[in-house]
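$ ./design --mode recover --in tokens.txt
reading tokens...
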């Protein structure tokens, strides 16, 4: 009798909702594509100085790898809205794999021609919004509404983990395979993403999608809350950008430490972001504007004391706290846009969002590099953190964004 009761209790216990298989496949595609992008960027930054690239040339490479996204974002988004995610994701991954193979073939005696990087890297950037927008278009069409926050959190792993995966592979790949072999590793990642993308479904554009927005007829302006949340993210990522260019100097000059401390700090940031993804489905139940506006405000206030720290351990702990606050941000925004934008325009809104965010951080990083000519790294970090807090506070003053569920 006791055994029967236990068995009945086990049957009655609600099972934890699983993320649908298509979403797991889409998340793996995004993870591989983003990891390849991060790997290539850090690889080129690593070889820039030994190859004799000037700081201006290095900055040009970073911008060329990101700015073309602004040109193609809207077009790719509209194509996704018309034909679905699968064809555009396949086009993106196939094109980027081919361009990386061509870049690897251009390497001579361990040297990457700058012209090849600018041309082939810029072309690859044109395609890259497709996977990001396509995956987020696909999620609400293959996921029941009650599992959507967890599915978005799963996809967000593909945004956070590449900071760990892509950067961790650069050193071993360079040591074992050199520049050409490392580029082949990046191409292999995207080819694997292409093979996985062949398994993506082709759902009906309106399947499972519940939106609080009015049905889309002819193209119209997005609701104020949509413009506000994307503007918040764009400004947030822009003023965060100087952290990437000022942190090396902060480690060397202020902490008196070496590259090990630099790697540790950013590894802690990435680990914190991954850990906090587990609470993103819970936070998604609340008002997105309050969560993300408050998150940007608290993130800035948390990072603000960094310049007064003289211990590497304390600095790494602050970066860990920053990562914990950073992690859920994109998941919350993704869920809000899926609800607030008519389903017929999901591809467009996510492609535009990707275009803006992918260029905001490099532009902010470039501005931070310019500021280092006259300001200390610690001062640049303080200014960046203060601006992040100000961006969050300004978003909380927006009435429609603050009230929207």
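writing sequence...
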């Amino acid at each position: 009798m006791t055994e029967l009761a236990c068995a009945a209790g086990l049957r009655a216990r609600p099972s934890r909702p699983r993320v649908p298989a298509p979403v797991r496949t889409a998340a793996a595609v995004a993870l591989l594509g983003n990891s390849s992008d991060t790997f290539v960027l850090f690889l080129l930054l690593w070889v820039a100085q030994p190859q004799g690239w000037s700081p201006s040339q290095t900055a040009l490479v970073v911008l060329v790898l990101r700015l073309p996204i602004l040109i193609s974002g809207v077009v790719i988004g509209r194509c996704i809205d018309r034909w679905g995610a699968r064809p555009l994701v396949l086009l993106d991954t196939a094109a980027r794999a081919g361009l990386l193979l061509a870049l690897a073939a251009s390497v001579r005696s361990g040297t990457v021609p700058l012209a090849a990087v600018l041309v082939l890297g810029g072309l690859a950037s044109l395609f890259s919004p497709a996977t990001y927008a396509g995956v987020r278009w696909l999620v609400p069409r293959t996921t029941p509404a009650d599992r959507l926050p967890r599915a978005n959190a799963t996809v967000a792993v593909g945004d956070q983990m590449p900071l760990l995966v892509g950067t961790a592979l650069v050193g071993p790949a360079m040591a074992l395979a050199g520049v050409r072999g490392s580029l082949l590793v990046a191409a292999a990642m995207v080819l694997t993403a292409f093979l996985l993308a062949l398994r993506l479904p082709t759902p009906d554009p309106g399947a499972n999608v519940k939106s609080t927005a009015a049905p889309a007829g002819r193209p119209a302006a997005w609701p104020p809350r949509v413009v506000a949340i994307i503007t918040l993210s764009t400004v947030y990522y822009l003023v965060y950008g100087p952290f990437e260019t000022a942190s090396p100097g902060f480690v060397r000059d202020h902490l008196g430490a070496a590259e090990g401390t630099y790697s540790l700090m950013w590894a802690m940031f990435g680990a914190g972001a991954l850990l906090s993804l587990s609470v993103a489905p819970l936070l998604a139940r609340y008002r997105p504007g309050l969560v993300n506006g408050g998150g940007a405000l608290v993130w800035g206030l948390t990072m603000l004391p960094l310049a007064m720290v003289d211990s590497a351990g304390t600095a790494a702990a602050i970066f860990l706290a920053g990562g914990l606050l950073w992690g859920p941000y994109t998941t919350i925004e993704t869920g809000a846009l899926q609800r607030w934008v008519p389903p017929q325009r999901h591809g467009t809104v996510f492609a535009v969002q990707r275009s803006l965010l992918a260029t905001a951080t490099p532009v902010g990083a470039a501005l931070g590099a310019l500021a280092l000519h006259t300001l200390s790294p610690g001062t640049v970090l303080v200014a960046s953190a203060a601006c992040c807090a100000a961006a969050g506070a300004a978003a909380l003053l927006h009435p429609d964004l603050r009230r929207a569920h």
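exit 0
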